[in-house]
Design goal:
Chain A has 287 residues and is of the alpha+beta class. Chain A is 35% helix and 25% strand. Chain B is globular. Classes of the chains: A alpha+beta (287), B alpha+beta (158). At the A-B interface, helix 2 and helix 6 of A face strand 4 of B.
Amino acid sequence: MKPPPFDYHAPRDLAEALAVLAGVGERGKVLAGGQSLIPLLNMRLAVPEHLVDINRLAELDTLSVASDGVTVGALARHSRVERSTQAAAVQPLLRKALRLVAHPVIRNRGTIVGSLVHADPAAEMPAALTLLGGSVRLARDGGEVRDVPAADFFTGPLESALRPGELAVSAFFPALPPRSGTAFHELARRHGDFALAGVAAAVTLDESGATTSAKVACIGVGSTPVVLDVTGAEPDEVAHAVRGAIEPDADIHASARYRSHLAGVLATRAIDEANGEARRALDHTGR
Amino acid sequence: MHSITLVVNGVVREATVPARTLLSDCLRHHLGLTGTHVGCEHGVCGCCTVLLDGEPVRSCLTLAVTADGHEITTVEGLAGPDGEMSPVQRGFNECHGLQCGFCTPGFLCTATALLRDNPDPTDEEIVEGVAGNLCRCTGYQNILKAVRRAGELIREEA
């Protein structure tokens, strides 16, 4: 239970980090919070030749909140964003999702961008980003920067669109239109564990109170977050629609059938709660 | 090998470690501070929790080289200068908040930060705050009482 040997790089700024990453290519791994990577190293499931520690890159320790959304830098720890009332005001789903990520002590160290790049199919942050239609900004040596929409970023279990030599420098979680509500429900064997299944929901109403958009993102039931548009579905149809769209795997923790059942139940609850929040927002702003 | 400098419990300590050395192993093997216990070594049990710049973190999920230049507080650093127990330690003492004691250093560090940030937590906040620490003796009821009592002591002495 000790990490295998690796060459350690501790760049002082972004330019140096990108130069190092360009040099090591696919033989290198980036270390940010390490709350997923170091367990993998300890268990020897990951054996990178080079480890590029970005913890000294203060320029990536950023959280910027604007009316159109929240941008988190690659070194913004889960706990910092969770505590930000400004971030919660602009995009409430962020805090709801963050409170389900492991335990507070893990969130003190883990980073949101790290969770996204790790791309665990049962993790909360990829689902939140995908549901909201956010994006991840990738940089590489030479100044080339690209923004990858969440829908294209998650390509498989623990696989993302990040290419060797690239560094994910930030992620953008867009705000929702007025009269919107969100929710995140999940079930885990033990508090703080990865969920057996989970569902994030976002609902938007028009000025008359009619639903203009209702979407869910399901975790733990596919190789990437499964997003489903359930606009127009009656409350009792949501579970059925979700179960028809997913093909969960069975493992030691739960059967495929149970995961499918769970996703339907959680989706119904999440849509109901998001809808309630959207209705309160509607009442609050006046019709 | 990498030469690092840590401020551990207020004392500047230097160590020369391979890059792959975990902070938990650096504290125990290189600095001789064996109060930090190592349980699962993959972040699940919470026994190895220490304060890094005041925030509780898993020392088994942190590389010693990453902590270079930072402040660490271990269980050895919780008591006062003359060895008088901190309010959190007294709470655990009074309420029988430990049995075998293996998980205790992690609980003490976690609870110290929890009560510093929120000296009057609700029962729900206490449970959420220490949920990442496992006690295999399952003495959780007394641990929760101990944290509650520690909060009282801190508030009385404030």
